[in-house]
Sequence to fold (613 residues):
Amino acid sequence: MKNFKRFLKYLIPYKKQQILSILFNILYALFSSLSMLSLLPMIKVLFDEGEKLTVKPVFSSIKDFDLDYIENYLNYFITTMNATKGPLLTLITIVGFVLSTFLLKNLFNYLSILYMTYLNNGVLKDLRQDVYNKIISLHVAFFSNERKGDLIARMTSDINTIKVSFMSILMMIREPLTILFTLAAMIAISWKLTVFVFFFIPISGFLISKLTKGIKSQSGDVFSLEGHLLSNIEETLGGIKIIKNFTAESYFSKKFNEFTTDINDLNNSIGKVVSLSAPTSEFLGIFAISILLIYGGSLVLIEQSLSGGAFIAYMGLAYQILTPAKAITKAHHALQGGNAAYERVAFILDAENPLKDKPNAHVITDFKHEIKFNNVSFKYKDDYVLKNFNLTIPKGKVVALVGESGSGKSTVANLITRFYDVTEGSITFDGIDIKDVTTKSLREQMGIVAQDSILFNDTIANNISLGIKHAKEHKIIEAAKIANAHNFISEFPNKYANNVGDGGSLLSGGQRQRIAIARAVMKNPPIMILDEATSALDTESEKMVQDALENMMENRTSLVIAHRLSTIQNADLIVVMKNGRIVEQGSHEELLKMNGTYTNLVSLQSLEVYQLA
Fold:
């Protein structure tokens, strides 16, 4: 229940729905009891029971309003109506009253469920939005350590489980009221019979709680396995070509079958408990009613302290307690499963973001002088990938990073955009430590074009204008022209309204990359970061993309991470990296004169080009 309490804050915006739901729940519980009590006068008419009273009972104060007064007034009403209008019309009137109470009971039942549904759906919407907002606010390292499919499961199926659990708990609010009003009516008819009911309910609740013990932990295991299952599906769909090429279908099928078998076994285990609890609770209820029949029958037949009509109405009330009791049992099951789901969703909501902005962080609006790395060291886990790294990127200059794979080039880009924080040292932006500025304002100064051009399943125009509100069409076209993308976009049937497909699957690699460049141009930042933007392209596409990149970098500060050295020969400064350290730096000509690491890299790539030719 403690997990449920933390979500009560989501009820605050829905006070109207809460108040109306509580009101209609109270009315439903009240009329549930009255509907059964209304059977009593009908039985009196049908079986001609009750004392014949021709004098109207006197009601002088609130103290006179008790069960005897109600019964006397009922006997007087039936006696006088029988005498004036006949037994048939009396019966029709009483039946009409019975129908009215049942109609009102069901009307209030509908309204209570309706407003509880509004409340539940509203809470679910707000919770889902908060989880999504938290996900997109978390740092990049969080996603490196978690399975994508498991996060999707927490955001979808787990939240849906919370919805079911939350609705069951809301329904629980009215069931105790129904039991309370029903017990009050039962006490009014016969306190002796009701004592047994009070004795039975705690025993029944104890037995059911023992029966359902362990559902929470098993539900948590199921949710975890379903998260792994989603991860497996996501990996399968993403790597379907590799699976087929390496004929690994049977391996993945076996792996998937192991997940589904484990989930099936756990679900069956939970199902056995849940399936047994409802019949058990009903049998215990019928057993209690059987005892009531024997004991109540003795009060009617032997002691004659209870009328037959009152006893039938009492039995109706006693049986009516079973429905809310079973509902409470089901809600208890839902709460056990919901608790496990709450914990998994809370894992996201409680995740700490070490890159969170400081309370008085600076907001930067432009780039004036330089970005500087000051003795920066960094490690993702245990081993350092950058060591004592010092670099200055002046405004308006093109700085290129080259080196073998794993030398730390991409890490520099990750640090400058503050996807990660430095382990030691500092990075300053115009003299201000980037830890002291807002992440949003820092990233607004930078545009990124990476090797893997990530596009979203949307139109070309929306991909180019990503993050820009009310983007002008002519600006989108202008950005596409700078990126050498306008010509091929114009050939599509819907031009800029054409959909790019999942991940840009409807476009070629070169086309995707040029749209990614257009997106960076559209943002129009003063600093461009190019992370091996042409390394995955063929020669023809590379030429067009390279021309687009040169157009984009004009009059901008650029940090270029290059695999193909031919693309960065005109850079103002080329930094050669090895094992997280700078081993050489200078212009293309200066580095060649050093006849060191850079010269060796150039020679190797020239040899590769020659061999390919």
Confidence is low (pLDDT under 50) at residues 607-613. The first strand starts at residue 370 and ends at 379. The domain at 2-349 is CATH 1.20.1560.10 (ABC transporter transmembrane region fold). The two ends are 71 Å apart (CA to CA).
